[in-house]
Design a protein that fits this description.
174 residues; alpha/beta; five-stranded parallel beta sheet; 6 helices; globular
Length: 174
């Protein structure tokens, strides 16, 4: 992979385990496609900083891969994973699989890559056990129709995309 494939981020805090092609892989339910096209792409890819997103539905993942491998490829070749939570996301097995793979990067690789974005209401009883566990330690960026709230939302999302993924765990005897 040549240097043109690496995202232009400050890597001082990240170990050079794998070169990343994208700033973020986006996991979402197909019924959120309009929000992805009209809002996320317009404000993140086409915005001032122009972050590169990996979207399997538009063909960013090489064709011919088995779907499980394609999802892993997209997640592991991205610095972060944006999980677009919606009521339909919770009911979709492929969406939950993507959440599990992103969570594995925390457990296996010591990389905290998950960025949670919620569009619409999700009944508490619809949330999976894994999502509930992640929510104990993660902030959710809530989408709003308020223009001032949207500006804050995009600023927070850009800030999350710029954060390093790797962190050092310290185990101390108590």
């Amino acid at each position: 992979m040549d240097s043109d494939d690496e995202t232009d981020v400050d890597n001082r805090y990240e170990a050079p385990i794998m070169r990343r092609q994208y700033h973020a892989y986006v996991a979402y339910h197909r019924e959120s496609q309009a929000w992805i096209d009209d809002q996320l792409i317009a404000n993140i890819e086409d915005g001032q900083e122009q972050f590169r997103l990996c979207l399997k539905e538009r063909g960013d993942i090489p064709a011919g891969h088995y779907i499980l491998n394609a999802i892993c490829h997209g997640i592991y070749h991205s610095r972060k994973t944006i999980i677009v939570l919606s009521e339909n996301f919770m009911d979709d097995g492929w969406c939950n699989y993507q959440l599990q793979i992103a969570q594995m990067r925390l457990v296996k690789d010591n990389e905290d890559v998950i960025i949670l974005v919620q569009i619409g209401e999700i009944p508490e009883d619809n949330k999976t056990f894994l999502l509930r566990q992640i929510l104990l330690n993660k902030e959710v960026l809530m989408w709003t129709e308020d223009p001032i709230g949207q500006e804050l939302f995009w600023n927070k999302l850009r800030m999350e995309l710029r954060k390093p993924s790797r962190f050092n765990r310290r185990f101390e005897n108590v």
